[in-house]
Amino acid sequence: MRAAIKERITEIIPLLKDRLYDLIPPLEVTDDPYAVIALGEEIWKSAWAGYRQVVRLQLYAGHSGLDQADDWARALIHRLHQKRVVSTGAGAFTLYYLGVPEAEKFDAVAGKACRTLRFGVYVPEAGASDLFDPPDEWLTALVDWTTDRLGESWNVYQTTWPADQNTYAVLWRIVGCETKMVGASMYEVRKRYIGHITAPMGAAEHKAAVSLVEELGSKVQIPLDTDQRRYMAVAEASADLQADAILDGQLRLTLVQRRMRPAEDAALIRRVDIHPILK
Q1: Disulfide-capable partner of 50 in 32, 124, 134, 279 (CB 3.0 to 4.6 Å)?
Q2: Which residues of the chain are modeled with pLDDT < 50?
Q3: CATH architecture of the domain formed by 137-265
């Protein structure tokens, strides 16, 4: 992974070729510019995202000044954020810009000012999706419906992110379920879902999110089993375009289905009292 990231960085900033070091530069390196890359430990984030490893990059522009480092930082963020990187050892992975509390800092060891960037790489937990087999029937139908709406350029997953997710991807996961009695012989099942949308550009994510919410709002029913005439209805659909695509998800969806209670479970009328109306 480190080698692939370093290769992409030097493609963006050729001046850093052979001057991108691990952890700290060699003692003999005294002239600028150069950069230092460090990989943090993998930290557990969520059941659907798995672990996140932080990649920290420090840019030392030297006599060119921090303005030059700012230009490099903007170019790196633009060309690395939400972009796929192919590594021979780690496979393909996506980088996400995480920002930094203090982008400009003084490195006391080097005695120089530098610009710091932080990117995250999410590593799904192996075998996590197997824990949800067989999958939720409604969730599978929702994935099929979403695939039909977005087209072949999008991959739609359920429950957890795969290790080899597509660049344009949607993840649906179930977060809640409840039932409500609506009559002596009928009850209602409600299930809540969260949808995550990732794409190379934020505009593509926003467009897909808005499109899905509008489509869901216009649908009276989503097919569950057309042969048996089983459907689920959309009770509520919304999108938060500022939400974190990987960890939080932009879409909120509630699906509902009304079912008949078995006849033996329905309440029986044991007695009827007739009171005459007296005038």
Answers
A1: 124
A2: 279
A3: 2-Layer Sandwich (3.30)
